[in-house]
Amino acid sequence: MRLIKLSFVLFFIFLCLLTNAQQSETAALGKVKLEFNLDKSGTPVYAVYYSGKAVILPSLLGFKLDVDSMFFTSFRLLGTERKSFDQNWQTVWGETKIIRNHYTELTIRLQSQQSPGRLLNIIFRVFEDGVGFRYEFPLQPKLKYFIVRDELTEFNQTGDHKTFWIPGDFDTNEYMYTTSRISEIDNQKMVETSTDICVRIAPDAYAVQTPLMMKTNAGLYVNIHEAALINYPAMQLHVNKDNFSYRASLVPDTYGNKAYLHAPFKTPWRTIIVSDQAADILSSKIILNLNDPSVLTNTSWIKPMKFTGVWWEMQTGKSTWSYSDFPDSLGTDGKLIPNGKHGATTANVKRYIDFASANHIGGVLVEGWNTGWEDWFGNWKENVFSFTTPYPDFDIAELSRYAAANNVQLIMHNETSGSATDYERQMDTAFRYMNLFGYKSVKTGYVGKIIPRGEHHDGQWMVDHYLRVAQKAAQYQVMLDSHEPVRPTGLQRTYPNWMASEAGRGNEYNAFSIGSPPEHETILPFTRLIGGPMDYTPGIFKMKGYNANAPDRQMHSTLCKQLALYVTLYSPLQMVADLPENYAAHKDAFQFIKDVPTDWDDTRILGAEPGDYIYIARKEKGSENWFIGAITDENKRVAGLSLSFLDNGKSYVATIYKDGPNADWKDNPESYSIEQYIVESNSSMQVQLAPGGGTAISIFPATAADIKKIKHYKP
Ligand code: NOJ
Ligand code: CA
């Protein structure tokens, strides 16, 4: 009997050893390798390597759920599956026409050893330029409805990297970037002093937003973000400065809960892009590839375009969004008393339609056309705007007729002032109204504290809301540009009518605040734009003194840099933001804006370093034309631009819009010159960029007459 007991105990110990032994799986593609381990306590751990060197040190995976606060340990491996994938797909619009989706996939199937044995899968995809992974809660009897209290995913760094960060704020991405070591991250001062952003909620001083860009001392570029954010809160990162580790920090609701889920459910993908070349970070397609293909079968109505708008005049105080200055006081006729400065009048909008029509600009955005602007923001009021009631001086029927007659589209504006509940109630009517008057695009806005009260811009409820708006817009064949939403995560692949978002500190800050430093636009493509296009509103030509109420305001840019932004900051809806009269003052430079498209067959990153410079060449969709944008930070530099992407043996006319010899963003921002040369694929250009400056180049196939008339480029 004793012997039987002993052998039973021994067998049990053997079983325990077996199940607790470290289990390791790897998957690799090119230089990138992923390693997965279940450690002795049954905790899932992953690590990432690039060219054999660690990029992410062993990092924990798992959750605290309401039903199991230890859903990160005591797992056993049920099985693994592997597959590889290599397919090209065609974009509806974008930076390139064709995208290769090439990865090897490793699925890890786990079961908790605690009763009742709940299941969790982790799916890894290893690409040539990084790794994506997501959790899956499969259909199972003992995990049906549950709450995510915390996601514990870690991203343990190999050292105290140089980091380009903004605070992990639950409600805004509109901060300036700080460049610091990981160990120096502390967002408190930035949050406190950014009074130009109206809602700032960042309770954790050590939290940063993604996309987070880093550079190691060894020269590796590492970017952390997420893809396909659906029905889940945004992932921010809490930093542990002692060991250079980040942990997922999900945006909570008012109860501190993160996500309310119903299995089966797949979380968004967590992404790590890595390369020893900064340019590869900009050309990475990981985020798009991790999103599902378009759910829209007919996309023929989705058309990228440039647009102008009655907008900069409001931002700079020349006109107002509101019709009256007094929300409560009415005239003897019982109507609002007009303030005489309203921007969205029929006559003024016609002026912008004429301007757009004369310059082949597809759209005119009209803000301030609808009732509600008298007390639209700062009051946390639920019912503010009507999305179907124009102000008395805005004749929508006449304007929609006039726009159509001039081959221009009006762009609808639906500012919600954060009242998502009210927008959801009005949404159907609002989109029907757009259809009725021929509006094919809408710009939404969420300035202010969110309603439902207690929700945040980046929490699960609002993440769902933005997507509902995109889906509703698709139902009515309307293109969407959302302002103040959660930052994008590549959903523009699945919903290609979700053209652009703001979700960052746009050019507008130069109008109403101290603005952003010249390096800002050299960081954005490595951070905010990793997730998707940004409605940055480039193209300001009057660089100083544009705000009568604050005469010392100025752009942190030269005029040529504003041109270059049309290439370096991609958006399929791209604004031509300045006033028609300011373009009239620089007709020759305006030619570049007239020429530059918003949809591309191909993109080449010619040079890039976050925080310093970005040089990009793009080929126009369905054309032989190329465009280059090159920008610098506050330092002047010479951009070396090899044209090897051009067709061999063909000649082209390059028109270079460049900073004047003494141009300087601060004291001499409007100085530029325009030169023309014949160039070929073996030409290599050297262009001087002023401090805070840039250059824009259009390259068109040359005619025989051009070749005779125009001189050859010599550096
Ligand atoms: C903030 C947006 O970013 C801006 O473009 C818009 O004009 C105002 N809100 C008003 O909606
Ligand atoms: Ca904004």
Briefly, what is this?
This protein has 15 helices and 36 strands. With 715 residues, the protein is of the alpha+beta class.
Explain what the structure shows.
It is a single chain. This protein is of the alpha+beta class and 715 residues long. It is 19% helix and 32% strand. The chain contains 15 helices and 36 strands. The strands form 6 sheets. Strands 6, 7, 8, 9, 12, 13, 15, 16, 20 and 21 form a 10-stranded antiparallel beta sheet that branches. It has an 8-stranded antiparallel beta sheet with strand order 1-2-3-4-11-18-17-14, with no helix packed on it. The chain has a 7-stranded parallel beta sheet with strand order 27-26-25-24-23-22-28. A hairpin with a 2-residue loop joins strand 8 and strand 9 (130-137). Helix 6 (346-358) runs parallel beside helix 7 (396-405) and helix 8 (420-436) packs parallel to helix 9 (460-475). The chain is globular, with a radius of gyration of 27 Å.
Q: Could you list some keywords that capture this structure?
A:
715 residues, alpha+beta, ten-stranded antiparallel β-sheet, eight-stranded antiparallel β-sheet, 36 strands, globular, binds 1-deoxynojirimycin, binds calcium ion
Tell me the major beta sheet: 10 strands, antiparallel
Give the termini distance in whole angstroms. Answer: 95 Å
SS-derived structural category: alpha+beta
Name the average pLDDT. 96
Task: Characterize the overall form.
Answer: globular
Radius of gyration: 27 Å
Beta strand count: 36
Q: What amount of the residues lies in strands?
A: 25-35%
Q: Count the DSSP helices.
A: 15
How helix-rich are the residues, as a percent range?
A: 10-25%
